[in-house]
Write a sequence for this structure.
């Protein structure tokens, strides 16, 4: 497979967008997780959630560093995504610790799957930079047992959290669409250049399947 | 000077309190700074404040690790300080980005000065552990120029932020007193064992002087 070149301005613009959205997603994930750690019912869990937030920030910092090396100003690259991410987080403000946990696990999972799909279409240098921010965050694994334990003692939470997971997926997809509408280069790259419409459809099927797997791991119906 | 021994149960209890209050202070500072980073007026400043928060969490993690090595359960050590720290942060909730910045700089400064004073009275092993969490956080230095620049464009902010700094000092001292009242071993160690009342008075004078120096660095009257 032949990869597009960063010397092509339209492709480069799409890559800057891709790195910008990835970086800003991690910065806001850091802030939301850190804020939500204050809802934790124990000090141990507060520290675990704080550690997960900090892992997101480390990835953000590595990514920003590499963007600068590529001659990309991270702030300028992130700017177009402030509005959609703010909207996503406003619309998915957790009403408690458990919703915060599920959001951290499921929301970040969807985002990383999406960027992982994108990484298949970019040039090797860009892919390497993206991969820095896509490494599996082992810090999130504590969430699985905490949610499963909570469901044992409060079975009614299960229906509420299943709905919550569906809402997270819906809001994430609708913000992704809002982004695609305003970022021409990115949308063209996604639909026109690297992928075609059928491939995009298949990608969304894969994203939804993986979302279902994640919900199942948490003990929830997707 | 002869140092107290960790084999003495009353002294050990005081040390556990000291490490617990230090660790919990850093964990909550992390959460508050990360939350307040969302108020930043630019992405660069958001990332700087997030980085400062993360530095606090790294110190918290190192400290917790060392407490475990000393046979101290960090969660149990921190528990008594949840109420006073929650009260402090509730009573000093910033009403904007600048207040958040001044709080991060001044509030953390007061806390670290206080623990630095305490470190003079503890045994060398404990002092070494405390020093892990007391290292100067260079990450906070960006605050000085941001506050000074803000005062240039909005001179009226100066009176408001000066009052704010005084309130932070007052609230910090009043929470410290609330802690002393409920934690016998710690209070006895501070007033009876290591220090005497005159020394405590001198210590508070030093803390206030250093607070004044910090405010001056920010361009504010103390």
């Amino acid at each position: 497979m032949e990869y597009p070149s960063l010397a092509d301005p339209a492709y480069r613009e799409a890559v800057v967008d891709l790195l910008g959205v990835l970086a800003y997603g991690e910065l806001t994930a850091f802030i939301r997780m850190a804020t939500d750690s204050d809802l934790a019912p124990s000090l141990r869990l507060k520290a675990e959630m704080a550690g997960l937030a900090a892992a997101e920030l480390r990835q953000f910092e590595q990514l920003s560093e590499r963007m600068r090396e590529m001659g990309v100003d991270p702030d300028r690259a992130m700017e177009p995504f402030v509005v959609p991410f703010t909207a996503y987080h406003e619309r998915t403000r957790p009403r408690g610790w458990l919703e915060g946990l599920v959001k951290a696990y499921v929301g970040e999972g969807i985002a990383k799957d999406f960027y992982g799909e994108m990484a298949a279409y970019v040039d090797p240098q860009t892919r390497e930079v993206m991969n820095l921010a896509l490494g599996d965050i082992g810090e999130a694994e504590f969430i699985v047992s905490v949610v499963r334990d909570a469901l044992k003692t409060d079975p009614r939470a299960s229906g509420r959290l299943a709905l919550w997971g569906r809402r997270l997926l819906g809001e994430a997809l609708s913000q992704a669409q809002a982004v695609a509408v305003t970022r021409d280069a990115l949308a063209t790259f996604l639909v026109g250049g690297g992928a075609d419409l059928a491939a995009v459809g298949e990608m969304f099927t894969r994203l939804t399947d993986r979302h279902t797997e994640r919900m199942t791991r948490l003990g929830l119906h997707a």
Remarks:
- Chain A has a mean pLDDT of 90.
- The radius of gyration of chain A is 18 Å.
